[in-house]
Amino acid sequence: MGTTTPPRTLAEALRARGDESLAGLLRARPDLLNPVPNDITQLATRAGTRASVVRALEHLDRFALQTAEALAVAPDPAPYGTLLSLLTGDGLDDGEQRDDAGAAITAALPGALATLREQALVWGEDDRLRLVRTARELLAPSPQHPSPTGLGPTVAEATAGMSPGRLQEILAATGLPATHDPVSAVAALSSLFTDRTRMAELLDTAPVEALSVLDRLVWGPPYGEVTPNPTPPVKWLRDRGLLLPVSTRTVVLPREAALHLRAGRAHRVPEPVPPAVAAAAERDPQAVDRAAAGQAFTALATVEELLKLWNGGGPAILRAGGLSVRELKRTANALDVTDPIAAFWIELAYGAGLLASDGETDERYAPTPASDEWLDLPAEDRWTHLATAWLAATRTPGLVGGQDAKGRALSALGPELDRSAAPDVRRRVLALFAELPPGTAPDAETLLRRLRWERPLRGGPAASATGQGPAPTEGTDLRSRLALWTLNEAELLGITGRGALSAQARALLAEGEKAAAARLAPLLPEPLDHVLLQADLTAVAPGPLERPLADMLSVLADVESKGGATVYRFTPGSVRRALDAGQAATDLHAFLAAHSRTPVPQPLSYLIDDVARRHGHLRIGAAAAYVRCDDEAVLNEILADRRSTGLRLRRLAPTVLASQADPGSLLEALRDMGYAPAAESAEGDVLITRAGARRTPPRTPPVPVPEGPPVPDDTLLGAAVRAIRAGDTAATAVRKEPADAPSSNAPSGALPRTTPAETLATVQAAAMTGSTVWIGYVNADGAASQRVIAPVRVEGGFVTAYDHTADEVRTYPLHRITGVAELAEDGKG
Q1: DSSP code per residue over 736-790
Q2: Which helix (H) or strand (E) is 335 found in, with range?
Q3: What share of the chain is helix, strand, coil (3-state, %, to 5)?
Q4: Are 828 and 790 a contacting pair, CB within 8 Å?
Q5: Is 0.70 surpassed by the pTM of this model?
Q6: DSSP H/E element including 259
Q7: What whole-number distance in Å separates Cα of residue 55 and Cα of residue 408?
Q8: Residue 699 and residue 716: Cα distance in Å, rounded?
Q9: Which of 238, 297, 493, 701 sits at 20 to 30 Å (Cα–Cα) from 264?
Q10: Measured between alpha carbons, how far is residue 257 from residues 152, 158, 379, 437, 591 in Å?
C-alpha cells in the first residue's frame, strides 16, 4: 500500500485504499456487500457490473453526475485540467457571469471528484483520471443512446469504416494537405476541429444557413436526417466533415466540432451549487406550532373515528386485494372527507398496525388488538406513533385511483402501492424544511428543483438504457409526485402547520419520539369529563372527551356535527342501541346526570323511558326466524301492516309469528317499522350486542419495502473490510513451489494440490517453525476457498491454526485440505 506506482486497474486502486476508505465505499454502495466479496479483485469486479453502476449513478447529485458525464466524453485517461475545461469551457467566450460560474465549478469540482472516487466510479491520479468502463458505456454517446451531454461521437469513431477516398475529399475541402494514411487523415481533421483559430476561419466561410443547421445540433441531439439530395448548406457541412455519415439517411455532428461551437463546454448549464430553497412565507413560529397541533388533534380524531367505523368488522377485501371504490367512497362520506384523503387515513392506520385483515373465510378489514393499546395512550404519544409510521412507510396512498403498468386500477390497501423511494423522499423534504428558519414555509417549486438536483438520475437515461429501474417518467416524475404528496400529507398529519415545519416535528426528526411528544403535549387540549345537555335532545361536548365518556356517548347518541365543539343528538335509534348493548334505563339516567354540567332535560328523560318501555317487548329468534310477544294485539298490528308483506309472516300461535326471513333481516325490518324488538338466544335470553367486539388476530404492521440493500452498520463494515483484506492476502500471496515439483499450467488463483502426506508434513513443519502457509479448503457443503493460515497444533487428523482470512483461530479436518504451499518470505507477499 505504500507504493507510489500509479494503479493500472480499479482493483489496484482499491487495494491502495485505507480501511476507512474501503468502508466508505461499502457504505455508499451497500449492494457490493451481498455477499461479502472474497477479495479486492472480486470487489472491483462487482463494483463494475452494470446493475451496481446504475444504482451508484442514480444516487449522484447533479454536479457529480455532470462530472461523470464530462469524463465519459473526455479522452481516457483524462488529466484534471481537461476535465475542468470541459466543465468551465475554454474561456474564450467568458463574460463576468461566466467567470463567476467558472469559479463556482473550480471550487466544487474537487468535492464531486472525491464523491466519484469514493464510490469507485472514478479511479486514478489527477493526471490520469479514469471513469469505470461500465459508466462510460452508459454515459457515452451512441445513436441508440444519446449522451446526456448532447455530444456525438469523436471524428475517429464517426469515420471508422469510411473509405480513404472520402477522407481525402474532406481533407481537400477543408484545405488540409492530402495523406494516404487514414489514421493521419483522421488526426489532421481532429486537429483542425480542436484548433480555435483555424476552426473559426473555416466557419467564417460557411453559409449562414449552414450555421443555422449547426445551431440546431450543437446542444443535442447531434444526429439529423438528410435526403438523398441534401440542401446546399447541408452539403457544405458534409463535404467538410462537419457532418459525418452514420447511415445513408443520418448524419452526426462530431464531438470536436460541437465542443468548438460550445466554447469547450460539455454542458450548456453546469450546476455546481445546489439550488437554494426559497421562502414562500414567514409566519410566527408559535402560530405554526399551534396550527400543527390543532391538525394533529384532528388527525387523531379522524383515525379514531375510522377505527370506530370499522369496529364491528369493516369492508370486505377484494379478490385481488384492497378496498373497493364503493367502500372507499362510503368511508370517505362517513369521515366527511374526499376519497384521496380517506385513502390517506386508511393507509396511515394500516401502516401503523391499527387496521388489518381478519383472516376469516369472508375476509374483512377490522381494527387490530394493537389499536386498543394505541387508544389508551396519551394523545401526544398516539400522534408520534402515527408520525413515525408515516415517515417509514413505503405505502403510497397518493397512487390510489391511478393505474399500474398493466392498466389495472390501484386500490386503497391494495398490494401494488409500495414505492421504496417514499421514505427517503419524505425525510429529505422535511430535512429541507428544517434547514429554513422556524416559521418559514418553503416555495414548492424551488423545493422540487432542489430535490431534482440531488437525485437527477432516478429513472433517467442510464436506468432506461440498461433496462434497470423504472422508465424515465416513472422514476423522476414519481419522486416529484412523492414530494408533493409529502407536502399535503405532512399538513394533514400536523407535521407542518400553515406550510412551515412545527417545533414538535423538528424534535421528532432530530431527537426522537419522546422529545416530540413533550413538545406537543402542552399544545393539545385537555380531555373533558362532562357535556352540556340541551332541551332539543342534543349534547354539546366543548372539547375532547375522556375515553370512557366518549365511548359511552358514541353508543347512546349520534354525532350531528364536529368542530371545536362536537354536537351529539339523542334519537330513539341511538337510545335503543345503548339498550341493546346491555344498558338499563336507570343506568342511562345515572350516566347523563353524572356527566352533564346542565340538568337532564325532561324530553330526554321521557325519550329514554319510552324506548326502554317498548324495548324487548317483541322477541326475535331463529326458526328460520320467529317473533313472539305476550301481547296478541301487537302481533295483529304487525300482520295488518302492509310493510310486513315482504317478511312473509305466519301465525303459529297466539303469541308467535314465523318468518322466512333470517333473524337479522327481521330484526332490522321491524325496527324500520317503528318497533323496538330484541334478539333472543335459543334459551330465550335477550342477546346483548357489544360495540367494538370484532378484532383481528394479533398482526404486525406492514414491513416497508427497502430501496435496495440496507446500509450496513459500523460493526458489519469493519468485519467486511477485514474479511476482504484477509481474502486478498490469500489471493495475492506469493506461493513458493516445491523444488522438485514440475512446472504447472494451473490458472492463477487455482487451489493448491498436494498429496495427503505432503500436506501433513508441510503443516507440521509450519506449526513447529511458526510460519504461515497457503491452503486450499473444501467445506462440508462442497464450497472451495483459499486461506492463509498459521498452524498452531496438528493432531488427530485436524490442524488448529490462526486463519488470516477469517481473522480468528479455527480447526480444519486435514482430509478437506486440497493442498498446501509455503508463502514466499513468510507469506505477506
Answers
A1: EPPTTPPP--PPTTPPP---HHHHHHHHHHHHHHT--EEEEEE-TT--EEEEEEE
A2: helix 325-335
A3: 50, 15, 40
A4: no
A5: yes
A6: helix 255-261
A7: 29
A8: 31
A9: 238
A10: 10, 12, 68, 49, 90
